[in-house]
Amino acid sequence: MRRLAALVCLLVPLLIAVPARAAATPMQVYGSWHCGNDACIWGAVRDVSEFDQKNHWLIDRGDGRPSVNVVVLSFVHPVKLLHKTTDAQTLDGVPRGMTADIVNYFKSRGIRVMLSIGGITYTDAWNAALAENAAQFGRNAAEVAQRLGVGIEIDYEENSGADLAGLQSFIDAYRAVLPYDATGANHAARLTIDLAAGDRWLIDIGRKATADWLRTTAPVLDYANAMVPARQPSASAAIANWQEHLDGKPTYAPPIPPLAPAKFTGSLYIAEGNKVLPECTAFGASLQNTTGTFVQTAAPNGAGTSSGLLGYMFWAAERPSTRGVTTLPPNTCEGGVGGGATAYSIPIPMPALRQS
Question: pLDDT tens, 162-178?
């Protein structure tokens, strides 16, 4: 008995010293960028029946429930939006394929829709639109958002000499029309930004966004997406990238402040190269499975109060490139993306987002 009592005395302090594991925070954002059938141009009107044949997995993971709760139609050309261009592929500044019918295809199933402006191909066009009339550019984006009932994503991938003053004017003009809405009830008020996978690319944009637009105390943008890196990462590399946003870069001059977990998502590929990816077809073997604990429990490190990233974004549905694999049948993503939606009990429709 004395030996048992002594053993208990030794073990109790050790048990007390073990930190409690952070409780998993439910994911709130779980979505996919969508490149249409022409590598992100969306240059032609789609028949809804034909579109459904190619993309049904997004609205039905196999049991009638959607696989995602947000779809981001990619991409809108910045200068064409500024000028409200009408040409063979564009109508009043918006790609002809981004129609109200396609938006309603998703929204009628409880899936939010956003339009992404830019992408790396349109970086020069972003620079040109901001230089010409950033405020009008922002107002035009807000008008399209209201007309279609969608949010807007800023995908400005200028790695050197980004026009931050112009981008501020764009955001100010958008917010003058559509103020920040923490409830998420006004879909057109949802304004997000894409940042690099970690903090070592798009440094100026990342610093500005983290310091001024993604603060939990005075938010301007709803959240950021930490984009995919050049190729599908390992689980450890993905986590290391996302941790950079949480930690910031205090040694940079000027430093990049830490980003609250509640203010960004992590991103993974579902179509890349020539091999079908488990992230698309097999949740059990996927990165959204092996990184899921981190995404749900990542602790704040100087910004925010709650643990866990907002969730995942996936690049990209249908045909993201003129070459390589797609998410077209038979390589649809119910088993990977849809499987994750089930495993993580993704809420559909998307709820009001955590603010801190």
Answer: 999 999 999 999 999 99
Residue 70 contacts residue 114 (beta carbons within 8 Å): yes
CA 9 – CA 3 distance, rounded (Å): 10
What fold, for 23-343?
A: TIM Barrel (3.20.20)
Contact 151, 187 (CB under 8 A): yes
DSSP bridge partners of 115: 73, 152
Task: From 279, 267, 263, select the one nearest 314 (Cα to Cα).
Answer: 267
Q: Which two tokens stand for residue 48?
A: 């809804």
User: Ramachandran region of residue 149, left (φ > 0), alpha (ψ -120 to 50) or beta?
Assistant: left
Peptide bond into 330 cis (omega under 30): yes
Sorted by where each begins, the domain ranges of the chain are 23-343
**Sequence-separated (6 or more) residues with CB below 8 Å from residue 63:** none
CA distance to 46, 69, 186, 339, 343, per residue, from 60 (Å):
19, 11, 25, 11, 15
Q: How many residues does the chain have?
A: 356
Residue written as tokens 């994503």? Answer: 153
7-61, pLDDT tens digit by residue? 434 444 444 443 445 689 999 999 999 999 999 999 999 999 999 999 999 999 9
> What are the percentages of helix, strand and coil residues in the chain, rounded to 5?
40, 15, 45
C-alpha–C-alpha distance, residues 345 and 109, integer Å: 16
